[in-house]
UniProtKB/TrEMBL annotation:
Pfam families in the record: Acetyltransf_3
InterPro entries found in the cross-reference section: Acyl_CoA_acyltransferase, GNAT_dom
Name used for this protein in its record: N-acetyltransferase domain-containing protein
PROSITE patterns cross-referenced by the UniProt entry: GNAT (PS51186)
Taxonomic placement: unclassified sequences, metagenomes, ecological metagenomes
């Protein structure tokens, strides 16, 4: 069931059925491997990951779909209902969709959803300093750097 619609995409909670060979292949993609911390080695492991995230009230894991094609995910974890903060991660798994404004469109829609439905006030993310295109996209949305650590920087976006 679609949770959010944007101009081009549907965002919905992932299910075990979404743990496919194609999804699993994203973790072997050279570009993805450079910048993501999570990696899965089997369909069962991926399905268990999806189920564990769905079971957590402090997590929102959404698949990004163009029509019926699963092209990526956006995850907010943890979501703190006390502080109003949510930590975000995004993966555009399908290479042909990278650099096409997917992240900006999806982050904007999901941030609005979190603000209106979970009282989220701030979104936080970590990004590799070498991922210049992602940093530029985040800055355009309004994210500001607040901390640097090793190869990473931490950014936040105030929704109020």
């Amino acid at each position: 069931m679609t949770l959010l619609k944007t101009a081009r995409f549907n965002l919905r909670t992932l299910t075990k059925a979404d743990a496919t060979i194609r999804y699993l292949s994203w973790f072997n993609d050279k570009m993805s491997k450079q910048y993501i911390a999570y990696s899965s080695t089997s369909i069962d492991e991926l399905a268990n990951y999806i189920e564990s995230k769905n079971a957590s009230t402090a997590c929102l894991l959404l698949g990004i779909f163009h029509g019926n094609e699963h092209i990526g995910n956006i995850k907010y974890e943890p979501i703190s209902y006390v502080t109003g903060e949510a930590t975000m991660g995004i993966l555009i798994g399908e290479p042909q969709w990278r650099g096409k404004g997917v992240a900006s469109e999806v982050i904007t829609a999901s941030a609005s959803y979190l603000k209106n439905n979970h009282s989220t006030k701030v979104i936080i993310l970590g990004v590799d300093t070498r991922n210049h295109s992602a940093i530029k996209s985040y800055e355009k949305l309004g994210f500001k750097t607040f901390k640097a650590k090793g190869q990473g920087i931490f950014m936040h976006w105030s929704l109020i």
